[in-house]
Amino acid sequence: MIRDIQHAQAEAVNMPPNHITTNNLVGSSMERIQPSDAEGRGSVGNFINTRNSWTETNGMLMALELPGIYLQTDKGKIYVYDAVESRILRRTKEGLVISITNPTRYDANISVFAETIADSKKPLGYTAFLKWPKVEVKEGMTRLFLINNDGKSIKSL
């Protein structure tokens, strides 16, 4: 569900010239895009000419505090939250080899949070996201990475 919430929030972000949602600056967002005629005849698809700082703050916090990709290395589970595609290709004695494909029109800088099942039972600190490594995948590209068994390091292949 968190992936759906994150992707829905991204849909509300103003990204001119092809994805206008607020009539304001790039990156602004609005909680209300009018899907009905509740505001009067001809208002379907319109939006109020304003922006909401709470939706923008929420988007920034999700971008910081949610990993783009989450892995449980010993269980071999992968969850993708970002707008990329990823899968586990194989297990080696060093760790997991994963592929990350970026099907979007934008370069992606993806945070990867990997841990073992035992580590997942321990609470994270408030700023754990600051230590998550980030990997870059250019638009339309696929890259391979080795995530070591304890999830502490990532190496590009």
Structural features, described:
- This protein is an alpha+beta fold and 157 residues long.
- Helices cover 17% and strands 28% of the residues.
- The chain is built from three helices and eight strands.
- Strands 2-1-5-6 form a four-stranded mixed β-sheet.
- Strand 3 and strand 4 form a beta hairpin.
- The longest helix has 13 residues.
- The mean pLDDT is 86.
Topology:
Elements: H1 2-11, H2 53-65, E1 69-72, E2 77-80, E3 85-91, E4 95-101, E5 108-115, H3 117-120, E6 134-137, E7 142-148, E8 154-156
Parallel strand pairs: 1-5
Antiparallel strand pairs: 1-2, 3-4, 4-7, 5-6, 7-8
Shape: elongated
Instruction: Please outline the major beta sheet.
Output: 4 strands, mixed
Q: Overall pLDDT, averaged?
A: 86
How far from one another are the termini? 32 Å
Total of DSSP H or I helical runs spanning 4+ residues: 3
Report low-confidence residues grouped into runs of 5 or more. none
H and E string: HHEEEEEHEEE
Structural class: alpha+beta
Strand order of the largest sheet: 2-1-5-6
Give the helix proportion (percent range): 10-25%
Using DSSP, what is the number of strands? 8
Strand content: 25-35%
* Gyration radius from CA atoms, angstroms: 19 Å
